[in-house]
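In the previous chapter we treated chains in isolation. Here, by contrast, the input contains two separate entities that must be folded as one system, with a combined length of 404 residues.
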Amino acid sequence: LKKIDYPEPVRELIRQLRRMPAIGPRSAERIALWMIQSRDSRTVEISDAIVKASSIRTCSLCGFFCDDTSLCAICSSPDRERQLLCVVEQPTDILPLERTGAFRGLYHALGGKLSPLDHVSPEDLRIETLQARIKQEPPQELILALSADVEGEATAHYLVDLLTGTGTRMTRIAQGLSVGLGLENADELTITRAFSGRTPLH
Amino acid sequence: LKKIDYPEPVRELIRQLRRMPAIGPRSAERIALWMIQSRDSRTVEISDAIVKASSIRTCSLCGFFCDDTSLCAICSSPDRERQLLCVVEQPTDILPLERTGAFRGLYHALGGKLSPLDHVSPEDLRIETLQARIKQEPPQELILALSADVEGEATAHYLVDLLTGTGTRMTRIAQGLSVGLGLENADELTITRAFSGRTPLH
C-alpha cells in the first residue's frame, strides 16, 4: 500500500519551519497545519512580516538594527553619554543591556567574537570600524561587555593589545555572568551588577 | 531617557510569530532575531514555503489536502478498500490514522464537530457532501472516528440519526482514546486498539 503523506508544499513548509531555532518536528507540523487551515489573512501577514523584517538595516556606527535612517535610535539620540562606549558581540546583545537601564552610553557591536575554530578572525569583526570611531571621537571609557567564555576572553585581550596607547580607559564588565554563558542568557540583575563591578584592564 | 526597542519591522515580526501555536514571547524574539541576522536565503525560503503551502487545495471528496489534482492521493488510489468509509473531524486527523496502518479504507473529513457554543451547526460541516457520497457509492461500513468529548459524541449521535435507514452499517472506534482528548493527541497503539475494538452503533 502506498504510504500517504502530506502533499509536497506542506512537507516543504514543515521542513522550512524546522530550521527555525527552538522548533521541533511536532511544533513544525502543528504550525504548518495551523497555517494551511487558516481562513483569514494570517499567513499573508506572517510571510509579509518576514520579508519586511529581513531587509532591516543596521546602524553604520554601532551595528544595531535601524529603520531606514543611517544611524540607529541610540547613536542619533542627544540624551546618551557619548563619552562611554560599550563593546558587545552581537547587535542582539544591546537590548538586554538597555532593558537594565544600567548603561546610558553608546554601543559598538563587533558582529561576533574571535574564534579560530569557527574561522572568525579580527577582519571578520567590526574592529576597524571601532578603531576609526575611537580615533574620530575618543571616548573617556571603553567598556567591554563580551561573553565570559574562552572566545570572549580572547577577543577582550586582542582589543586591549590593539587599543592600548589610544589614551582611552578600558574596562570590562564584572564576571557576575555565569562563566560559559553569553549575555543573552543573563538576567537583568546579573547584567546590572556586572556593569557596576566593572574592573580596569590595564 | 527614550526607551530603546527594536525597529518597527522587527517588533511586527515578533508579534506575527507569537500568533503561531506553541510559540511564546521568548521563542518569537529568538526566531525573529535569527531571521534578521541571517546572511543566507533562509528567510526567503521560509516565506516562500508559507505562501506556497497556504494555497494548498483540499480533496473535493474527502477534504484531505491535495496537490493540484481534484482528488487526493487516498481517494484516487486503486488500492484502498472503498467499501469502508471513516469519518473524521479534521483533514489533519487523517495522517495520524494512516501512520498506524490500522485502516485501509477511505476517509471523510467533516471540517469540525457540532458545537453550539462555538456556533458550529450541521450546515457548517461537510455533512451534505457525506450524504451525497454515501448515496452515490454506499459503503458497507461507516466508521466514526471522532473525538471522545461532548462535541464528538453529539456529532456521532447527529450522524446516526441522519444516516440510519441508508442501509449502511455504522460503527465508531472504541473509546480506547483518553476521554476528553482529540485524535491528534493519541499515540499509534491507542488508535490501533480503538480501531480494532470498534462497536456497532445501532
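The helical segments of chain B are 8-18, 25-36, 42-54, 94-100, 127-136, 150-163, 188-196. Residues 95 and 192 of chain B are 13 Å apart (CA to CA). Compare these points with the single-chain example from earlier in the chapter.
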